[in-house]
Amino acid sequence: MNWPAGSFDWNQARAFLATAEHGSLSAAARALGQTQPTLGRQVTALEESLGVALFDRAGRGLILTDAGRELLTHVRDMAEAAARIPLTASGQSQDLRGTVSITASDVYSTTLLPPIIADLARAAPEIEIELVVSDDLRDLSRREADIAVRHVRPTDPNLTARLIGEASGYFFAATSYLDRRGRPASREELKSHDIIGIRDAARMVEGLKSFGIDVPASLLRHRTDSSFVMWELARAGLGIGIFPAERALTDPAMEVLFDGEVAVRFPVWLVTHRELHSSRRIRTVYDHLADQLAAQLRRTAADFAARSRR
């Protein structure tokens, strides 16, 4: 397979990579913000320039040929190398002006981060913040976000993380549900109650077991991957859920169970790319988030403890 340097076209390579990763021209076109015919022409042009077929057409889908699989490895390496170029440039920037993107869960994005970002805006008005609301582990190396607030320490050696505190989850249920079904006196009695859970019931059951909470998947009758929807399902009286203290301090419709006993504990990590960590703008936001989130976590824990004692 020959690819003369003079004939290299990154747009064709990117079209091939997107098509291989998404499995169809239509999905790849949506991902790249292009039309399907344009993307198809780029893939065809790449095949013609290389003199090989990269895909077998199977109905509406596409299957990589042996040549396509071989090329895919190299194009992925190229994409990762290309992504490091702006990372390196951003990492050397000492200018505060510009945008910093932060990704965090829906709960943190609405309960903890807004006042912290407002305080940052007063201290560094040159910096613009883009908040990406997501529970997924965003690929920081490809600049889907500059900084992530996560509960899992990253394993990627190109990422750097700081443990800024520990958060806790508690058992909550609506007063209407507890009046109807009774108030469990122990974790063992949870087996006679409905549990609000995530869509992957098996994964949640295993996760709860690691915290000493043993309930069968059949009790997870109402499931969602949205923390806010989960809370609203519990507020509607559909079952008992585990929620962070931040969701409960201002909601009189919900009761904490077992005298405020902690159901789960989880770390809070602040993550960024190693190269971005040397950028003055991103370092400013990173340090501000670390200090303010740590303080807010301590205040929330103290406020929740005081409420539980009342």
UniProtKB/TrEMBL annotation:
Family: Belongs to the LysR transcriptional regulatory family.
Residue ranges occupied by any HTH lysR-type domain in the UniProt entry: 8-65
UniProt KW Transcription keyword: yes
GO biological process, one term: DNA-templated transcription
InterPro entries reported for this sequence: LysR-type_TF_proteobact-type (IPR058163), LysR_HTH_N (IPR000847), LysR_subst-bd (IPR005119), WH-like_DNA-bd_sf (IPR036388), WH_DNA-bd_sf (IPR036390)
GO molecular function: DNA-binding transcription factor activity; sequence-specific DNA binding
Highest taxon above the source species: Bacteria
Alphabetical UniProt keywords: DNA-binding, Transcription, Transcription regulation
Protein name from the UniProt record: LysR family transcriptional regulator
